[in-house]
């Protein structure tokens, strides 16, 4: 009889073992999924950081280009007065739109021509 009882215990043990194995497999699957999710998050964060750095570099380059544009204080005054703008806004606009520099110089010349007549 003891042999029969041992067989029953082994069957029960093997069922328990199967359940434990399944539970362990589920647990490890979740860990693997979690690891995959965290690696995706890290990749996304790295991509966002690289994009932000590229945007910052582009902005710095644009500011450097704008700072290199030579403008005349009189041009800024004319634009600010004629369009009733803040001088900083007028200056930035002149720097951004270099072609306006020629317009403002034309305006200066026409004012001088009218004043001399």
Automatic annotation (TrEMBL):
Coiled coil: none annotated. GO terms for biological process: protein stabilization. It holds the Pfam family UBA_HYPK. This is Nascent polypeptide-associated complex subunit alpha-like UBA domain-containing protein. It comes from the Eukaryota. Residues 69-98 form the Nascent polypeptide-associated complex subunit alpha-like UBA domain.
């Amino acid at each position: 009889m003891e042999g029969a009882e041992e067989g029953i215990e082994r069957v029960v043990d093997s069922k328990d073992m199967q359940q434990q194995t399944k539970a362990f497999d589920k647990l490890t699957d979740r860990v693997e999924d979690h690891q995959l999710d965290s690696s995706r998050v890290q990749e996304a964060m790295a991509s966002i950081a690289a994009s932000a750095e590229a945007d910052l570099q582009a902005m710095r380059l644009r500011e450097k280009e704008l700072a290199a544009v030579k403008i005349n204080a009189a041009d800024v005054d004319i634009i600010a007065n004629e369009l009733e703008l803040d001088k900083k806004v007028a200056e930035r606009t002149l720097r951004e739109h270099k072609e306006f520099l020629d317009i403002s110089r034309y305006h200066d010349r026409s004012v001088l021509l009218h004043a001399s007549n």
